[in-house]
Amino acid sequence: MTDRVSPEAARHLAVSSHEAHPDASLCVHGGRQDLRALGVHVAPLDLSTTYPISSLAAGTESLDRWVEGGEGQEPVYARLHQPTVARWEAAVAALEGAEEAVAFGSGMAAVTACLLASAGERANVVAVRPLYGGTDHLLGTGWFGFENRWATEETVSEVVDENTTLVVVETPANPTLDLVDLERLCRRVAPCPVLVDSTFATPILQKPLLLGARLSLHSATKYLGGHGDVMAGIVATDAEMAARLRQVRILTGALLSPFAAHQLLRSLSTLEVRVLRAQATASQLAERLGRHPLVTSLAYPDLSREPWLRRQMKGPGAMIAFELAGGFEAAAAVLRGVEMITPAVSLGSCDTLIQHPAGLTHRVVSETDRTAHGISPGLLRLSVGLEAVEDLWADLERAFHRAATEAVREAPTGSLQRRSDNAPSEVEPAL
User: Fold this and answer.
1) Which residues of 308-326 are buried (b: 16+ CB within 10 A; e: fewer)?
2) H/E stretch holding 182
3) What is the helix (H) or strand (E) element at residue 413, kind and residue range?
4) I want to staple 211 with a disulfide (CB 3.0 to 4.6 A). Which of 171, 183, 265, 362 is the partner?
């Protein structure tokens, strides 16, 4: 059976679902409300690349509408409209409280589309660091012809001018978990549109559009996919911007495959369960890491510290960043020492991943800029998965012991800076 959800119907499902159901129900039923009428229990997978037209006139009219970023009556061709992808887009739009969502083949394809859709004559884009390394690198290339300006949360309103077409921010930020008051920032730069990379938080913990942002972006490769087996990106936004993003997608071919969309819709069913379970484990690990003598600093959101943060996020999430005494050598030793935890980039999988931002995800950022924004040689980023907390902690302790043993064996006496066991540090929230 072919899944033929029109964009108009998909948007209606998204909006009506958001009004009727909390997130737990949306995760399970979003984008699936028509299955009973179709006579199926699982959403169909449509692999077609082309579609028969009912008439030349209908095909021509539909093609014209798609190319303009609108909605044709017939799919015509999968680069113009893909029904299985549209089904997943409707589900994510519902979770985000958005009019629409537009999916892409990767998170970076989604970032690129947002930049292209926002481009204008004499345009400039203002970005608040830290950002994911790929986004930071893309903004600095100058490939799109617009001026890129860097700002902090405090200086952003001074940097934005009448030619600024987009403000880019990530919160919690990759990899340091720096946090930005989105409601405040959006007010300060209005009417300039704000793009928020909300990958770390997911729609379960944070909804940027409800705080004033125009675009909420996710590398769906991470938590939305959740199993390390699909690559995708998605942007939730209003109907006008969605039309422009679809135009970019059609022109650039930055498509999400229907099979990937089908996997993503499957994964969405367990999104809330996975995020909340991983968050509970991460909170326990963060508390223990904050007391470990080899950990010199730790970043994990403390929602009790600021009223705006309690309004912005429903929970601290499952990402942790921490620095080690011993710097790069200690970090490398920990990566060699973990056994259950996987030393790998990416995040949001069912299994726990650990990586070295300065050497991997943010290596494309200059050393000066990395250092200025807290991405030190001794920083590690931990994406907590669904394993038992005691097993994860035992794995980390073994790796820490290895790092300390190697440092003591290889370094001159007294050269390894360690904190006294009698003076444990408090967790330093990423604020």
Assistant:
1) ebeebbbbbbbbbbbbbbb
2) helix 182-189
3) none
4) 183
d(CA 15, CA 130): 33
Report helix angle 327-337 to 389-410, nearest 10.
130
Q: What CATH code would you report for 273-410? A: 3.90.1150.10
Other CB atoms within 10 A of residue 229 CB: 11
Active-site residue (options: 4, 79, 288, 363): 79
What are the residues facing 195 on neighbouring strands? 168, 215
Q: How is domain 7-46+82-269 classified at the CATH fold level?
A: Aspartate Aminotransferase; domain 2 (3.40.640)
Cis peptide before 377 (omega within 30 of 0): no
312 touches 181 (CB < 8 A) = yes
Question: Which mean pLDDT values do the consecutive 10-residue runs of the chain (431 residues) have?
Answer: 42 42 91 94 96 97 94 95 97 97 98 93 91 94 89 96 96 97 97 98 98 98 97 98 97 97 98 98 98 96 93 97 95 96 97 96 90 93 98 97 77 38 37 36
Q: Which of 23, 178, 181, 197 is catalytic?
A: 197
CATH 3.90.1150.10 maps onto the chain at 273-410
- What's the CA gap between 394 and 284, in Å, rounded? 13
d(CA 159, CA 139): 16
222 classed as catalytic: yes
The CA distance from 306 to 301, in Å, is: 10
- Asked if omega into 193 is within 30° of 0 (cis), the reply is no
- Is 46 known to be catalytic? no
Main-chain phi, psi angles of 164, to 5 degrees: -75, 125
Task: Supply the pLDDT for residue 324.
Answer: 96
What's the first-to-final CA gap in the chain, in angstroms? 50
Radius of gyration in angstroms for the set of CA atoms belonging to the chain, rounded to a whole number: 23
Q: What's residue 410's pLDDT?
A: 58
Is 77 among the catalytic positions?
no
Q: Out of 222, 246, 314, 370, which one is annotated catalytic?
A: 222
Q: Rounded to whole angstroms, how far apart are CA atoms 234 and 306?
A: 29
Region of residue 122 (phi > 0: left; psi between -120 and 50: alpha; otherwise: beta): left
What pLDDT shows up at residue 144? 84
Residue 103 has φ and ψ, to the nearest 5°, of -100, 155
Alpha-carbon span 324 to 403, nearest angstrom: 9
CATH 3.40.640.10 in the chain is located at 7-46+82-269
Catalytic residue among 51, 77, 132, 300: 132
Whether residue 314 lies in the annotated active site: no
Residue 35 has φ and ψ, to the nearest 5°, of -65, -35
